[in-house]
Amino acid sequence: xxxxxxxxxxxxxxxxxxxxxxxxxxxxxxxxxxxxxxxxxxxxxxxxxxxxxxxxxxxxxxxxxxxxxxxxxxxxxxxxxxxxxxxxxxxxxxxxxxxxxxxxxxxxxxxxxxxxxxxxxxxxxxxxxxxxxxxxxxxxxxxxxxxxxxxxxxxxxxxxxxxxxxxxxxxxxxxxxxxxxxxxxxxxxxxxxxxxxxxxxxxxxxxxxxxxxxxxxxxxxxxxxxxxxxxxxxxxxxxxxxxxxxxxxxxxxxxxxxxxxxxxxxxxxxxxxxxxxxxxxxxxxxxxxxxxxxxxxxxxxxxxxxxxxxxxxxxxxxxxxxxxxxxxxxxxxxxxxxxxxxxxxxxxxxxxxxxxxxxxxxxxxxxxxxxxxxxxxxxxxxxxxxxxxxxxxxxxxxxxxxxxxxxxxxxxxxx
Length: 415
What we know:
Layout: E1 15-20, E2 32-37, E3 47-49, H1 54-58, H2 66-73, H3 80-92, H4 99-114, E4 117-118, H5 131-141, E5 156-159, H6 164-174, E6 185-191, E7 200-202, E8 206-209, E9 212-214, H7 218-228, H8 230-234, H9 244-247, H10 250-256, E10 261-267, H11 271-276, H12 284-302, E11 307-312, E12 317-318, H13 330-348, H14 352-360, H15 371-383, E13 390-400, E14 405-414
Parallel strand pairs: 4-8, 5-11, 6-10, 6-11
Antiparallel strand pairs: 1-2, 2-3, 5-14, 7-10, 8-9, 12-14, 13-14
């Protein structure tokens, strides 16, 4: 066994959750399994393990030696051969922090950096990989807007990033508004679901989908990165590789504004600000990015070009599936709807202070993944001295009481 594996440690990032087994019979524990998979796609093969392994995995923290783990679980019948077999299996799947994983990670990062195009990561899983089938799906969802905007008025379109099965109607009601924009560049901004110490992640790559390629406005990205700081702007560009918050927007943009030039930006967590109680203007990275983006947009405007934001964001994530202790109920979802209404009212009022206070007052108990993105966009408008009006086209809740999982989302047009 490699020396580094003598104190086995589950690597990061890694998704570990319980999933039902379709053919399971007997009691609940026998019909479930632990699913382990890599959210970044460094390891392409998921792994299913029996639930009894769960407590053992918790000891894989890099602090306990193989001998210590064996002694800890000896009373439960753990044998050295079984422990070695599990360590070997996890290492083979690149789920342990060891030489095998780190080498694969370096190779994957360098391979992505060398690409000029960000390939479609979800085609064939989250949506059809065949262009004709995907085109039919998107066209079937798009509907006539309930109200009309004058040409050129749209400053920001807010769409979900939940899957099309649950969020399709919301996508279909908001995206027709994009036809009213005469923007030259669309800042495609959304949630980064993978942790990073950085708040903002730029990409200078074209983005591809089965409906064609959306070219990146490399000049705008370069101007923004120069103002913000090139090294930190692209330090974690790799997070774009499999992120779905932007990718799920591409088919709709391609149908409504084919060939649109984009500026891909991912926004990370504002957890440190919420936990510390410090306002975001106390964080240099935040203020530097907002200022840099506002300046880059102002330069575009001075040269006679228009810029529009497209935000791919969801709202609340609640239920035991997301770590809540209590099961979902219709009454609780009504409470969530009322809280979501207040969140949306802060956006409609263009009130970043109220938006931050709303999320901070319960330490983001609803896990609003789109909050950092929306706060950033509204703040940029404030720096530009743009007063925007906001129309909510649709609010939805995707609730699954069986799996105890609920996600809420909305479509918004900011003019």
